[in-house]
Amino acid sequence: MGSVTGAVLKTLLLLSTQNWNRVVAGNSCQRFLIDLLFGPFLHWDDCDEPLVPALSQASFSSSSELSSSHGPGFARLNRRDGAGGWSPLVSNKYQWLQIDLGERMEITAVATQGGYGSSNWVTSYLLMFSDSGRNWKQYRQEDSIWGFSGNANADSVVYYRLQPSIKARFLRFLPLEWNPKGRIGMRIEAFGCAYRSEVVDLDGKSSLLYRFDQKSLSPMKDIISLKFKTMQSDGVLLHQEGQNGDHITLELKRGKLFLLINSGEAKLPSTHSLINLTLGSLLDDQHWHSVLVQRLGKQVNFTVDEHRHRFHAQGEFNYLDLDYEGNVSFSCSQPQSVPVTFLSSESYLALPGSSGEEEISAAFQFRTWNKAGLLLFSELQLVSGGLLLFLNDGKLKLNLYQPGKLPSDITAGAGLNDGQWHSISLSAKRHHLSVVVDGQLTSVAPSLGPEQIYSGGTYYFGGCPGNSFGSKCKNPPGGFQGCMRLISISNKAVDLISVQQGSLGNFSDLQIDSCGITDRCLPNYCEHGGECSQSWNTFHCNCANTGYRGATCHNSIYEQSCEAYKHRGNTSGFYYVDSDGSGPLEPFLLYCNMTETAWTIIQHNGSDLTRVRNTNPDNPYAGFFEYTASMEQLQATINHAEHCEQELTYYCKKSRLVNKPDGTPLSWWVGRTNETQTYWGGSLPDPQKCTCGLEGHCIDSQYYCNCDADRNEWTNDTGFLSYKEHLPVTKIVITDTGRPHSEAAYKLGPLLCRGDRSFWNSASFNTEASYLHFPTFHGELSADVSFFFKTTASSGVFLENLGITDFIRIELRSPTVVTFSFDVGNGPFEISVQSPTRFNDNQWHHVRVERNMKEASIRVDQLSPKTQPAPADGHVLLQLNSQLFVGGTATRQRGFLGCIRSLQLNGVALDLEERAKVTPGVEPGCRGHCSSYGKLCLNGGQCREKPSGFSCDCTFSAYAGPFCSDEISAYFGSGSSVIYNFQENYSLSKNSSFHAASFHGDMKLSREMIKFSFRTTRTPSLLLYLSSFYKEYLSVIIAKNGSLQIRYKLNRYQEPDVVNFGFKNMADGQLHHMQINREEGVVFVEIDENARRQVHLSSGTEFSAVKSLVLGRILEHSDVDQETALAGAQGFQGCLSAVQLSHVAPLKAALRPSRPAPITVSGHVTESSCVAQAGTDATSRERTHSFADHSGTRDDREPLANAIKSDSAVIGGLIAVVIFILLCIAAIAVRIYQQKRLYKRNEAKRSENVDSAEAVLKSELNIQNAVSENQKEYFF
């Protein structure tokens, strides 16, 4: 046994050194008790012996007893002595039963009974413990569980194992609730064993030293284990130094324990050699706290009570022989300080004072988390005034008011709600009013002090009883919740034990001889960097700037993929993506390219072309790629995606990828698996192959890569790497550019990923008895579940997971109600969302539930969420142990019929489809997405079903893009036009192969819908002209006066009907929107969504043999009215957008042809945006995406009449073609000459450095191509 003790001492007695005195100098009253643990090393496995039977009657005490036969000595478990148990005189919450175990013991369990054969039993109670019989501490089962459930009858035994165990001499049972038909009655037992330890008492100026024998210690393992208790908030517990300047320090600061480790290695940067960690809180409560520092190699565990932190340390540690300095005592002193806890805002402590004195003075210490609360109130004698001392916004306010006089106010201190002890002393007398906060005096000028003051008879601390003083005592914001100690009135200390015994003053809702403050921010349940703040009853999380929301900052505000953003209707752009949802990974910024599929684009720092020379296997080149996201974020993104790829381009000149004779790689790349990869393209990792080798078109067929041909000319191996497990590329190594004229260059594209595997992952449940099962869901402290569902059934369980008593369940309770039910040990709760419409409409609905330390919530679609606050002091851990059932329950009843999609638990997606493949009654996948998402297809786009998701078909829309929302618009230069020919001539109409030629010559067109937008400043202008073979037409023009006119001529023998909008000038450079709907003879017109008109046509009701649709200038002879002819000759100059005639979109067919279309473009027509700032001239904006003229160009200065000769257009086109050919010939000749000169110049300067590697390489490739072409003959 002695050897074991010695070994322990060598590890543990390095508790404090001579540096202690230096650190705590000036604090002579500081005292620490250090407990050197033998217990954990000499622990018996069966520490569960009954401890109460060996106790004498004197070891039992209580607050009171009903009679001598109900005394505390009769409270032994299963005994029938006396009245068969203890019962107090009065049954209220201030009663207690206490046992003295004689010495410190380790208590591992407790048990209770009611009074024998009676109706007296306790249904819930608190358990408190103490070393001295003073300053009690409350035992907690969990972080917020204070009470124990008691008995349901008189004789059954309720047993609780204490984890962790209690090390104490005294136990106290405080009944909270009891049988309402009886009174308090208890019999008790405690189980455990002896607890052995050595204690040292340090007074703040003393130290205990130990110098270790280096040879007797392991360099790989250290264990520092101790317990301490103190009333001081600051001081050094331990300082350990080595021979190289390395040291470890344990120091208490503001009630928190700091571990400082300095490796002492000069080679290490200071940020690596210095480690500073903080654990624990409120450690100055004069109760034992355990500290454990374990080092195994570089791994260090730092544990304070139940809180642990793991980290890696740098450097080695040496050690310091046992000695001590100063006043060191190997016994345990017990400072007597009796705190009192104000449990609620209704608590108060009333203490008598000397009435009629000419001074009011009081002093005390307090600690609290609340920003506001009454600390002290005293009524003045002879007048109706009073003195108030209270907290307001963490500051101390002293207010003295007397009738007819201005009140005297003092504000002192700040941040006094920090949980630390603060000392207060106040004094009020004639011409004097002052308060001292933590040694800092604040007073008012004598002229502002009271002229005369007489103290009242009672001092009220923490609050006032009922409405005794009306508004006088209720001005401050509520009562005080916190702890007080060392209370004195008129410089006389108050005996709070006498208050507890009822012989001094009175009180309400107090806990005397105990400070029940707890740090609700330790551990910090605010996730993702949320900032924790607290009050006495609860904590709050500030989620600002975290990217998360909710009561504990658990729920990400960002989507998990570009696919999810797309199906919210978002267009291409930069977005924050949170790949693991509510998981630990932070959101990051990337670019989403919304095409038919959503592409994720993640950039890195190596996108520029990099040239490499002078390398060999002994002197390799390594290029590294750093991405805008961490490797964990990239991996999560890649795992989510359906497909990922990355383009790697390798240019080479006498630079091989593989040494052909022995197959040794000469260049390679590394991915996220940190493995060497030697393939350079393709989706499968085929070693030492490039894209040309996979596709069979390498420049030398005996090699699988172009570069391996080892030619003295530039070539390249470019390929898309698409094997997801190896992406992204993180490094490239090149070793074969050391030979003469040998060089390489490389360029890596961004990481591209498309789709989202989990977003469309779904299963169809076909019977009520079918379900999918998954492993148990672990969401002890915070849990969120989200999914989509669609059904026609009226009810069914979506998800269920059970524990022994705990459970979670999400179900469709009725066609309009979705319910979240759960139990975490506080009894079952349920919250529901009710919809005004039915959920069983066979459309997708989104459900998200969350349960955390603060609350439970449920949200369905965009309906208002419902929440259920968690009990302030209830169970917090969700403990499940069964399988997770999806689409049903363990009883195979109330199963769900329908589809569930994208099921995620705490950000982790479950693969429903894979599990459904092997489960009877469940099918993978689910059809019918368009019923829910079809509304995202805009502007006439048609929703098309896909195996995973849907797409928008924009064929018959004037818009493009993934949702048919991208407006297609064009700038029309002077004299330009776009003509859509429905039929070449009447005789060919029936044989037309164009889909658009559904307007046949023998068809009567009785209705049409026309939409477009325009912007111009020119008058007159022709916006749109629709003609037929029977000289019928529709023209939309802007007249010379700026009015908008719509002219319908549906009968060749009558004048056209004219609809005139003359309310404003429409050629004002603003964007205007127009819609025309004709139904036979009735025309409805809307302009800019506000000017509406309905007219009846007199010229006819039908179009016959529609011929063409013209935008801009009319290029052929037309028999039209004079206004239309004038506008048609002038044409249109400006911007036209989203032009649509029924199912025909002429601008889209011209600018973005997806198939052959009967379209003719003349003049200058360029794709552009019609959206510009107000007042901008539509003709002066910059144009983009130039469109090649299909029919040549025209001279804008050529005069135009109603009849335009087509011959002139043909001649002009031929002339333009000839000029273009001559210009091309001249350009080619000049280019060849320039390239020859550049080639010679670059040959002379090849060894010089270049600023732009890519530009130079491109020019060299051009030279190489030009030299190759120079060997040919050119015939012009």
How would you portray this structure in words?
It is a single chain. With 1276 residues, the protein is mainly beta. Helices cover 10% and strands 38% of the residues. The strands form 18 sheets. Strands 2, 3, 4, 5, 6, 7, 8 and 9 form an eight-stranded antiparallel β-sheet that branches. Strands 22, 24, 29, 30, 31, 33, 34 and 36 form an eight-stranded antiparallel β-sheet that branches. Strands 41, 42, 43, 44, 46, 51, 53 and 54 form an eight-stranded antiparallel β-sheet that branches. Strand 69 (942-946) and strand 70 form a beta hairpin. The longest helix has 39 residues, at 1206-1244. The protein is globular, with a radius of gyration of 44 Å. It starts with a helix and ends in a 6-residue tail after the last helix. InterPro entries: ConA-like_dom_sf (IPR013320), EGF (IPR000742), FA58C (IPR000421), Fibrinogen-like_C (IPR036056), Fibrinogen_a/b/g_C_dom (IPR002181), Galactose-bd-like_sf (IPR008979), Laminin_G (IPR001791), Neurexin-related_CASP (IPR050372).
